[in-house]
Amino acid sequence: MPNGAPAVLDVQGLKTVFRVRGGEVHAVNDVSFDLAAGELLGVVGESGSGKSVTMMSLLGLLPSPPADVRQGRVTFEGQDLLQVSDSKLRAVRGGRIGFVFQDPMTSLNPVFTVGYQIIETLRAHMGLSKSAARDRAQELLELVGIPSARDRLNDYPHQFSGGMRQRVMIAIALACDPKVLIADEPTTALDVTIQAQIIELMKDLRDKLGMAVIWITHDLGVIAGIADRVMVMYGGQVVEQAPVRDLFRNPKHPYTQALLTTIPKLSAERVRRLTIIEGQPPILGEAPTACSFRDRCPKAVAICAQQNPPRFDFGAGHDAACFVAAETRDAG
Amino acid sequence: MLDDTTPLVRIRDLKMHFPIYSGMLRRQTGAVKAVDGVSFDIKRGETLGLVGESGCGKSTCGRAVLRLYDITDGSIQIDGVEIGNAGQSALRPLRPAMQMVFQDPQASLNPRMTVEAIIREPLDEHTTLSKTDKAQKVLDLMDAVGLNRRFAKRYPHTFSGGQRQRIGIARALALNPKFIVCDEPIAALDVSIQAQVVNLLEDLQEQFGLTYLFISHDLSMVRHIAQRIAVMYLGKVVELAPRDPLYDAPLHPYTRALLSAVPEPDPAISQTRKRVVLQGDVPSPANPPDGCNFCTRCPAVMDVCRRIDPTFQEVEPGRFVACHLYENHASKTEKAEAHANQQGS
User: Which of A19, A133, A311, B336 could form a disulfide with A122, with the two C-beta atoms 3.0–4.6 Å apart?
Assistant: First the structure.
């Protein structure tokens, strides 16, 4: 953890299963991580890797059934979020922990003005009076860089562009001074030039407000530009975790290594042929009994098919769930 | 017979405007100028990348080139045949030579048809092959795109995104096309699957001598696959250049901003470099600004940009740009040279 700062959020052994027709989907398997105050943790993974489900599980945002958060402990401000009552959890959600979703069009209500939606949050969580809430809403829109904020409070979501809508979403998430902000693919639906604006904004806000941020994305480029520490997920598990520079310079897990070589880079020499990752992501029908990447892994050995690798420690906050990497470490 | 050096596709001043109707009498009150005067050539066997942000008109342009729309104005020549104003009956015999691969493999495959039927459909429509020949051709196509023959009777929903995209590619290849428009073929795929599909497209190009118009917003992938790249902004091509010059030394301020906005997967670069962050949003194509379309966001904007729309011109051999910064560029260098010569004599 950077600077040895105490963890604001600590997740241990989280396990989420979806009951579907004809079986179960083990979407999140024994996921553990922590988040230091003011830290920006990047969570990378492909679709179906469990990155969004993990975050939704710890805030109780998944409908149950079909979802079932079977195990785990989520410590936030001295309480276990998986044990507290619904009303207490509601106070945390949108209050002490803010959430920004991927698609700003569908997560804003089209029939209410933007101002109404921000004020609603403020009144529900902070008990502000109408006029105080209105002032605060204006302040928030100014904070996220929306021009003529006072007038725009009366506008409806469709009157904002995609980038502006995402700014509104961020304003709502920031409304109650959260300690932790979870941003789930906040720039995926946006164009690159708008994405660059939002990334700069989030960096600014983090420095200004000192909150911790969890940034979920499938885009390693975005992670490289913004994160302090990165967690790579595959098949519902954390396969590698490291400080950002360490992860990109010295990836341990074959999946991370493959991901980094398969995307073409603008700054590198153009390659004649792209390196590919063979095969398809795993189907999570049952709890893993072996390494979930082994079928696609160029380095797989016998033990990979017999046991699910634990996360081996590589020092300096770097760990990876790979038998081969651990063996190389011990041999070297 | 045309020789091999003539471009396969020649587009001149292509315009695609969609009318806006309003009021009680539904009169036309304006138009969305999705594509507004685009010109480019695509050489035989070449991949031309067409990049831009959403709403810039790149997909509309790709569809208009294949005459999936009745275009507003302009000329489209494919293999020397003018199709800009051709009627549907004239277009139909030309269709086999020009095909399309779509962005969303989920939406572009009929869920009620088996893979075999999907790939066979173009053969049913356009050829007189016997049943057994068609069946053989379908299996050959499945081999070519790396789909297991045993899956011929399955339905699209049983396949993953990457495999579905292979089905779409097999269908596009069925009639031995010369020219394929690939409209964001990898945008809906996972990172680990994108490279598989891009490599496949490259292999097929080599194998069948295909020419691609590759539409994408992913600048790193376009750099990999395309030989020349056209950058679109608000309905116009602002810059067109061979790959290396475009990426090494972009001329148009928009191209520069776009390239600098691409997040690089390398923290040493991306956490230290200074990016050009563009202010504001793309204006509406129904109501573009006066003068240059980019003048509202351009970091190098001048007075003239707000009045006069810059012409799209060749500033170096093979490099085209539409920007006042480079206007009279050629004549300036000539002047400088002439001046030097005078002094020398």
Answer: A133
Q: State the nearest Cα–Cα gap between A148 and chain B, in angstroms.
A: 13
A196–B53 CB contact, under 8 Å: no
Mean pLDDT for B216-236 is 93
For the segment B316-332, what is each residue's pLDDT rounded down to a tens digit?
Answer: 999 999 999 987 654 44
Amino acid identity at B238: V
Q: How many CB pairs under 8 A join A and B?
A: 133
pTM over 0.90: no
Question: Measured between CB atoms, does B287 come within 8 Å of chain A?
Answer: no
Judging contacts by C-beta atoms under 8 Å, the chain B residues touching residue A267 are 264, 266, 269
Q: What is the pLDDT at residue B4?
A: 67
The pLDDT value recorded for residue B265 is 84
Contacts of B282 in chain A (CB under 8 A): 191
Structure confidence by residue, pLDDT tens digits, B144-196: 998 888 889 999 988 888 889 999 999 999 999 999 999 999 888 888 788 88
Q: What is the strand order of the sheet B211-216 is part of?
A: B98-101, B179-183, B211-216, B47-51, B228-233, B236-242, B319-321, B313-316
Per-residue DSSP letter, A93 = B
Q: What confidence score (pLDDT) does residue B329 get? A: 52
Facing A266 at nearest CB: one of B192, B262, B275 = B262
Rounded to two decimals, the ipTM of the complex is: 0.77
Average of per-residue pLDDT across A129-140 = 91
Q: A117-121: long-range contacts (C-beta < 8 A, 24 or more apart)? A: A117/A168, A117/A172, A118/A153, A118/A168, A118/A171, A118/A172, A118/A175, A121/A94, A121/A172, A121/A175, A121/A176
Q: CB-based contact (8 Å) between B257 and chain A?
A: yes
Interface contact flag, A221 B263, Cβ < 8 Å: yes
Nearest Cα neighbor of A290 from A276, A299, A281, A302 is A302
Sequence-distant (6+) residues with CB within 8 A of B46 are: B8, B211, B212, B227, B228
Query: How many residues are listed for chain A in this entry?
Result: 332
B chain contacts of residue A271, beta-carbon cutoff 8 Å: 224
Which tens digit of pLDDT belongs to each residue from B65-103?
999 999 999 999 999 999 999 999 999 999 999 999 998
Among the residues of chain B, which ranges form H helices? 58-65, 88-91, 115-126, 131-144, 161-173, 191-208, 219-225, 243-248, 253-261, 267-270, 329-344
Q: Which of B20, B29, B18, B105 is nearest to B63 (CA)?
A: B18
CB-CB neighbors (< 8 A) of B162 in chain A: 280
B220·A248 Cβ contact <8 A = no
pLDDT tens per residue across span B269-317 = 777 777 777 887 788 888 889 999 999 999 999 999 999 999 999 999 9
- Would you kindly state where each structural domain of chain A is located, as residue ranges? 2-96+176-331, 108-175
Nearest to B261 among A193, A218, A270 (CB): A193
Q: Following DSSP, what letter does each residue of A223-253 receive, concatenated?
A: HHHH-SEEEEEETTEEEEEEEHHHHHHS--S
> What's the Cα-to-Cα distance from A185 to each of A162, B38, B245, rounded to whole Å?
14, 34, 33
Q: Are A25 and A236 in contact (CB under 8 A)?
A: no
- Is A267 close to B258, i.e. CB distance below 8 A? no
d(CA A116, CA A109): 10
Most B CBs within 10 A among A267, A275, A283, A292, hence the mutation to make, goes to A267
CATH homologous superfamily for the domain A2-96+176-331:
P-loop containing nucleotide triphosphate hydrolases (3.40.50.300)
